[in-house]
Amino acid sequence: MTHTVVVIGGGATGTGTARDLAMRGFDVTLVERGNLTEGTTGRTHGHLHSGGRYAVSDQESAIDCMEENRILHRIAGHCIEDTGGLFVQLEGDSDEYFQQKLEGCAECDIPTEVISGEEARRQEPHLTKRVERAIRVPDGAIDPFRLCVANAADAVDHGATVETHAEVVDLRVEDDQVTGVEIERQGPNYLGEGCEGQTETIDADYVVSATGAWASQIAEMADIDLEMAISKGAMVVTNVRQIDTVINRCLPKGEGDTIIPHETTVLLGANDDPVEDPDDYPEEQWEVDMMIDIASEMVPIVSEARMIRAYWGVRPLYDPNPDSTKDSGDVTRNYFVLDHAERDGIGGFSSIVGGKLTTYREMAESAADHVCEVLGVDADCRTHEEPLPGSSDISVLEDRMDDFGLRSPIARRSTQRLGDRAPEVLDTDEPNPTVCECEAVTRAEIQDAIDDVGADPNGIRLRTRASMGNCQGGFCSHRISAEIYPKHDAVTARDALDQLYQERWKGQRHTLWGRQLSQAMLNHLLHATTMNHDADPAVGGPSVDYTAFDGGRAEPIEGRHGD
Amino acid sequence: MAIESEVLVVGGGLAGITSAIAAAREGADVRLVCHKRTSLRQASGLIDGLGYVPSRTDTAASETITQRRKDFRTVRSSRSEYTGPLVTPFTEIEALPPTHPYSILGEDALREGLALFDEMTGEMYLGSHTEKNALVPTFGGTVKPTARYPRAVAAGLASDSRPMTIIGVRSFTEFDARQVADSLELAGVPFDVTGAEVEFAEAFGADAKITRVAKALDHDEPIDGTPARQALVEAVEPHLGDAERVGFPALLGDDHTTEVRADLGDRLGVDVFEIPMGPPSLLGLRLEDRLYDALDAEGVRFETGNPVVGYETSEDDPNRIESVWVDHKGREVPYSAEQFVLATGGFVGKGLDSDRQRVQEPVFDCHVPQPADRYDWFVDDAFGDHPYARFGVRPNESMQPLDAAGEPEFANLYAAGSVVGGADIAREKSASGVSLATGVVAGRMAADPVDEPSPRAE
Predict the structure, then answer these.
(1) Could you say which of 3.40.50.300, 3.40.50.150, 1.10.10.10, 3.50.50.60 is the CATH number of the domain covering A4-40+145-228+333-375?
(2) Which residues, numbered 261 to 300 in chain A, qualify as contacts with chain B under a Cβ-Cβ cut-off of 8 Å?
(3) Residues A303-337 pLDDT 10s
(4) Does B383 contact A528 at a Cβ distance shorter than 8 Å?
(5) pTM of the model as a whole
(6) Integer angstrom CA distances of residue B118 from A45, A551, B148, B287, B352
């Protein structure tokens, strides 16, 4: 008999758990209230940790990070950029801590190399002259969107069902046993099925909550008291890539002192401040200013860079010993599978909390192991052996660029994004113009994403990076809407435009000075002046008495037919 | 040796050119300097006067910026309403806030600005036959009110009841013509409208510049062996149906656009019009050419390519500007004049600049009223009532920029165009009108500074 499992949460841990369970033969349904990656996963720093960061204070996490770092290189090469990382010691930073960091790394099996300040500056010329020496570690950048999509796609390939825009509104509990979840659709799922407001019950032999920062809310639906130690962090995005290596400050209290190159941008972040509600916390000016100021101490040129937006994420931390923790920065980055039968007397239900993006796979493995144990299923984990879709060698694909008649930078970036799916996506007989110029995303890629996620502009964005560059959707949100149109009606396509434009605004407004303020004004002029989108009679703008306006000249207009 | 003139205009956009011509017509010896030519390549080419006015109710107090998820539909439906589209640009001026340039100058300034524009552009633009706004279809699938429009868009007016077809080009991404047609229908236009995407000029490659296609039509160049205009006619013909007019994205030629439009109209047997587009905007570029011809005809000397980097005041009167410094490839040359006009543009034209701490006007550091906290420069809704959209120098009725105490910054400085604050030109659809009204007053005052300002219209 096949057991049914519902996994709640479409982030890295949730999709990873769904993949793992599906590969072990379970009948899996994953439910996510919004898009995949809409929670913490889509709002991380994208830091593939070596573990160096935790090598002194939190060695258990550090060891996990390094092990998983190695595994992810094998199974998800197309989601990783091997930038390497540096822990930099600036003038006045403690020698003693530098030494502790080195020793900690050795204890956690994290390879290191100490280099001089001079050598560090040869590697990264924009590093401050105040750098005295640095420790090289195998940090990298990881694309959480691609990672998550690849996990979900592979789960589906192994028979799982993925329901996006399906919010869990209740857990069904019978005789202290969770027997299913009740969902309310927030809109059609990625296949275009269902509609907003529909409720459904999904039966399950077991329910795994992989909702991270939202775990308290889900547990509460079964009257379970689960206190999380969640904290927010701001990240600021620049429009230029001034460094190619992950830069960390080698200081004991690290807040806001990591700079990570990602595609064409650099991400600065992140602070660590406790919050109560993961859906409603202030996004504050001082946080943005602090990220820029701290990063500028290490890489001074950052303060002159154009910042294109800022975003916030909530860490899904869980503190097993809250009484002994002084500061949210000290909460362990370790993860925990909480069995609610054992812990709270409610069977058929567990929550996986804590952890890092880097350790998502191991977390998923532990959660799946636990499900197997409870349901008495004997099946081994294979997620550390089987590569994710799209992960084979992309250099082979770059040679095939000419097949698609694409100019090289665009083609290279497309193939990087698509991995081994590039031929099937880019092989089109139709013209394949660039839709998003900032990120060089072509029509074929957008269309491919629409096939996957429907008229969901944020889903399209996460798959392709379209609208994530300098213009923040000003020059492409209407184009993406036009790409959606042929497969969906005009109202849906128009809604997609508004949804994307508003979503881009949400992050852009935090960096509204200098060139980005000029960009915002240009976007405002294009959308409000030239297109009149702000007063569109078709979407609730004022209605129009057409006959009251200028009907043209009475005399014939030059060029009019028949003149 | 300083380069001298009576009036020196800094900035070469619509406002700068208008003020230079207005000053020249008062008999002044005028010179115009600007860094980049204009931002008209980014402008639609429509001449908006006033299309919407803010509602008179107070806007809701700005909320704390939080992570709270908000549905875009909620944001859209709670947007503070603007009244409009206004049938004429003149009747609702008194509904504007008191700091709006129209409120300060009165409606006559707008009338005079539009009249001067009509003279500068001659037959190229229409709309002066009526006080009414025209409704022009936008490439966003909606309609917008405007005071003057290029002849090229005339056959597309939305108050005309003749059936319409809109043509899109498959290898361009700005819009899907079928979506534009459906959207216009949803907007309740009083005519039948259909859309079609056609194959045209694909031999130029998927990312051909719109200006490249325009040139091909100008010269009727063969594309894959077929002359460009014939190729376009063949592509469009099967989609015409009952349409009596057909709209294209604005790419129908550059130098010979009138001929291209007439030729296509004759061959298709319908009226042909263009839909104003975003950058690079051919309608904007054609207007730019016309305005520079007008500047030339008025005898205004102008030079582009060199930025103004500083200024010097008179030795005996710190309140008078004596000269500005123009950077000629690293060599700073003084340009002296009796009177100066600041028409450097807004945030887009770099007439306003900002950093994390403040917004400033970079040439003369004129006072720009602004909230101290950067997070009060904007609101939650992308299309809301953003304070930043109204940033700029604050003028008196002579268009002299005022300092924080309400006194003129300099005795001989006037401001015009987007560097002037007080208007959300995008939401009001007032961009060109503000440039023309402020330009005409600033130019006239600079030419004849003793002249009393025209009394404010009540």
Answers:
(1) 3.50.50.60
(2) 278-285, 289, 292
(3) 989 999 999 999 999 998 888 777 767 788 899 99
(4) yes
(5) 0.87
(6) 55, 19, 9, 12, 29
